[in-house]
Specification:
heterodimer; A: 318 residues; two-stranded antiparallel sheet; 11 helices; 5 strands; 8% strand; B: 135 residues; mainly alpha
Chain lengths: 318, 135
Amino acid sequence: MAEQEYRIESDTIGEVKIPKEALWGPQTERSRNNFPSGELMPLAIIRAFLHLKKAAAESNVEVGDEPAEKGQAIEEAIDQLLALSDEDLRKDFPLHVLQTGSGTQTNMNVNEVVANLANKLHPGLNILPNDDVNRGQSSNDTYPTAMNIVAVEAVDKLEPAIEHLIDELKVKQDKYWKTVKVGRTHLQDATPLTFGQEVSGYISALKHDLAYIQELKPSLYELAIGGTAVGTGLNAAPGMTEAIAGKLSEVYGHEFKVDTNKFWGLAHHSALSVMHGAFKTLANDMFKIAQDIRFLASGPRAGYGELNIPANEPGSSI
Amino acid sequence: MAVARVLGNDVTINFAASQGNFEMNVFKTVMIAAFLESADILAGTITGFADKMIHGLTVNEQRMDDLLENSLMTVTALSPKIGYHEAAVIAQTAQREGTTLKEAALKSGKVTEEQYDEWMDYMAMTNIDRTKPEE
């Protein structure tokens, strides 16, 4: 019975037992068993990888580095995968964040799943994970490319949240522009100000944080793709990388660029760390604002009691 | 708690970003996972804070007025009129004797009731007419 649930496949190290119905191959299976702990690889990264692999297949066909029928089969497989719900997509991508730090096994997971599905759809084409789906690419340039793409997507979602909070705060600023109250410095009583003035400080902090994020964002548009293994671009066909950038820019609506230093792209992630610095700054400001509201709303009888906040949930004791 | 997570992620990301050797950084996967978590929880908690907290927020004007009336620090407005030292003595006297600022001010003999009421204009102290709201 157990024998029927597995199939045997080989890679360059040897034979691997893989669940019979799994679309992934031996490299994924090895990683799944070797690195079983921690959170799973975010699906946003898998989807970015799929878009990248699709753009790469199309580009390889365009520059004459991949037969059109193979390229089309790869694209067809990827379209099917992209159409899956998160729940269904996860079934094919079981790897964890804690794996090889280069993301090699997630790159191979994508290559194996896409190749297997393409072969199912078009038996006889013999599409290979490394030679075809990964053509002209390396984990070393695809993974950092996917990182920047998902980082841009994440920033796209964060920006309107900040703008929305600014809008809500403006309503309160304007409504209480002339409501005078005690100011406090060092937690000690100080001279008066209005609640509107106090809120305008919050708004300005958030506007600054949003501006920092917007200023740093273009740095994330610089993609590592085309660097391949060490940044030299060995095995990537001329023109392929520029074509990929154009296709990804269309998919995501951002001006991704590839004329950037690949040795930096593979070995440094400055754009991510500096952007997260802006996230941290935003978090610091949000903490200050939330603490102010929390303290000013303390009470009702034994606190500052200056603000009334909405009752959203009951407590447990009284 | 969300902020604690973001600050923790910042440590993870900074450490990960420093872990390049020669031609490649090999802390990529943990770095981007931490980055995505930060962006996600910031966007989520900021949206919740806007809709569930700020949207329904109101002020307790009575309480603000009471605290202001009891405040001793409004004495700062008297400073340019009667000098910092005299103003400070009035505030200290009021605090020591448990009186209002006005009682201590009148008792000091440095201000008349008329002057006190004119100078103790809380709204004027905010310089509201010289402050611009954020747009």
